[in-house]
Backbone:
């Protein structure tokens, strides 16, 4: 008879320990171990596995019927369908995560209201009551959908049984951190509850052919809360990013078994719900004032070209250690570019506070933003501005050289569409007179910063 033992499970990585310790040896996090109730078993897992099971009948690849693209459920947002890979796949499981208040529940209620016009949909909430969801549905105009059904439950067993009944084509669960299985005594949101509840829900989705969307919480660092195995279990992981108080909100796929992870959908929040941004470049540049420290960057959000304003402010520091602050840009990358500026262009920034802002609440992950950041800092430091009709893009190396970037033709096409007359970028980007090629950072600053 195997003895029952209490285990302590790390809520960050899922590692187990026979006794409580302050710091997890596996992931290094402090105070993440939670006690789990004893698990008793009369027979070892290996012995049970050796005596059970049956021979499976395999299929050839040619005999397997593939899902047609027209069988996918359309969300009602064209860009979101592209992020998902042409729509929601039947039987697929999607995990959507984002910070509190970003608009996850709003977006999913809009999507379910649209899909419920043609097929039955179930919205399961473990965080809100029926009356609370009804208030949001009235604001979004979704309360009249006859095929949009609602349940309030935190039981993973009950929700899985409802999915397995086969009465719904799409099920939204808000959120996976609130679900719990009756067999597990730990609290909802723990590693064991999230892992086992997700497994039960996913098995029910695959058996019934219903698509499932799981809403996930995020930690204060911005990563998805719970064990990493949750992201491995699902088919698609969507990250909802942006400023919850204003600006654009971006939905991008971190993982997608059914499509590309290079697409992104841009939304803006209104009183009646989220709307797709049809021309984000024009919206981002509508209130721009030409001044020193302001540079227009031609970037890519997924595969979509986008023009965004980069603002820099350089002030003499009041302390011995200068301050560097970046909003919408990686701070480590900013420190690297400042070091390149000081070394390769002889700008003295060691006694200056430097502030960088990406207008519109966007967060840049594009290496082509390097040249625009450097020119914005140099412009603010020297009190000189760049010409109004110029856009900038290019990667900066440690030697000060300007390196080529991907999709230069799409960046240039977007700039032309908005009336810009010239682009400053790396050599070999594209063969057109619209772009002015620069070799290194020093020549770019000397030639194109005006008084």
Residues:
């Amino acid at each position: 008879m195997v003895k029952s033992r209490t285990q302590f499970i790390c809520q960050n990585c899922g590692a187990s320990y026979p006794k409580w310790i302050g710091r997890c040896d596996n992931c290094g996090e402090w105070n993440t171990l939670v006690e789990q109730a004893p698990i008793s078993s009369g027979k070892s897992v290996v012995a049970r596995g050796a005596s059970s099971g049956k021979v499976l009948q395999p299929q050839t690849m040619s005999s397997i019927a593939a899902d047609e693209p027209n069988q996918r459920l359309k969300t009602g947002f064209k860009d979101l369908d592209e992020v998902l890979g042409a729509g929601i796949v039947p039987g697929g499981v999607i995990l959507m995560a984002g910070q509190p208040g970003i608009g996850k529940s709003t977006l999913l209620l809009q999507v379910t209201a649209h899909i419920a016009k043609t097929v039955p949909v179930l919205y399961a909430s473990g965080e809100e009551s029926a009356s609370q969801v009804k208030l949001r549905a009235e604001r979004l105009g979704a309360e009249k959908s006859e095929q949009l059904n609602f349940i309030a439950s935190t039981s993973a067993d009950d929700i899985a049984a409802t999915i397995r009944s086969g009465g719904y084509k799409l099920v939204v669960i808000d959120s996976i951190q609130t679900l719990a299985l009756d067999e597990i005594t730990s609290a909802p949101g723990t590693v064991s509850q999230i892992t086992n509840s997700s497994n039960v829900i996913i098995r029910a989705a695959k058996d019934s052919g219903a698509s499932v969307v799981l809403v996930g919480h995020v930690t204060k660092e911005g990563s998805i809360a719970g064990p990493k195995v949750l992201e491995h279990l699902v088919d698609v992981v969507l990250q909802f990013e942006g400023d919850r108080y204003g600006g654009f909100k971006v939905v991008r796929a971190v993982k997608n078994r059914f499509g590309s992870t290079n697409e992104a959908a841009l939304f803006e929040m209104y009183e009646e719900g989220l709307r797709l941004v049809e021309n984000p470049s024009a919206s981002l540049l509508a209130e721009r004032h030409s001044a020193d420290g302001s540079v227009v960057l031609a970037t890519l959000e997924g595969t979509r070209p986008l023009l965004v304003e980069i603002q820099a402010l350089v002030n003499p520091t009041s302390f011995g250690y200068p301050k560097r602050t970046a909003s919408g840009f990686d701070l480590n990358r900013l420190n690297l570019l400042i070091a390149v500026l000081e070394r390769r262009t002889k700008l003295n920034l060691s006694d200056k506070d430097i502030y960088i802002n990406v207008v519109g609440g966007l967060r840049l992950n594009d290496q082509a933003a390097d040249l625009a950041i450097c020119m914005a800092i140099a412009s603010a430091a020297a009190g000189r501005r760049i010409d109004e009709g110029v856009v900038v893009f290019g990667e900066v190396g440690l030697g000060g050289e300007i390196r080529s970037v991907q999709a230069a033709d799409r960046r240039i096409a977007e700039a032309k569409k908005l009336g810009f007359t010239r682009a400053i970028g790396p050599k070999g980007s594209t063969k057109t007179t619209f772009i002015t090629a620069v070799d290194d950072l020093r020549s770019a600053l000397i030639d194109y910063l005006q008084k």
Observations:
- The mean pLDDT is 86.
- The radius of gyration is 26 Å.
